[in-house]
What does this fold into?
Amino acid sequence: MAQELQIPNNGATVKVRSPWAVALLPFITLGIYLFVWWYRVNRELRDYGRAKGYDLGQNPGNSLLALIPGFILLGIPPLVSYWRGTKRVQGAAKVAGVSPLSGWVALILYLVISPAFFAYLQVSLNEVWRKEWGLSPGQLPSAQASQMPPRLDEPATPAEQG
It folds into this structure.
């Protein structure tokens, strides 16, 4: 089950999702879940990047459109979308201070077992979200931890000071 966490300063949310669900739900839903997941992941990365002052994507709709009409037209746009999405996940990991996923492992998984590629991306994103919310690996966020805590390197706001 996915747990939502709210990004402060912009009201957007991110989700800690099960990598098993990301890998297997596209089979159950005849591929529809993959499109929904890809849009949401790219939206989360964009919103997270904006909150942190980094460019982690601008238009999740374009990332999604590269999959559907892009595949029908040439077959190349989905590959570019997945490559850029992987780079965004690596960028989010660097921003959060988590070791980024390996691009080579991602490429091999995509070519050999593509459901494992999507699960691999989700595992990396889950690490980013857990790091940002101060959760230990495997720990699910509680209702009190639904908002991102202030970073130690950021000054406290007047409300937080007293």
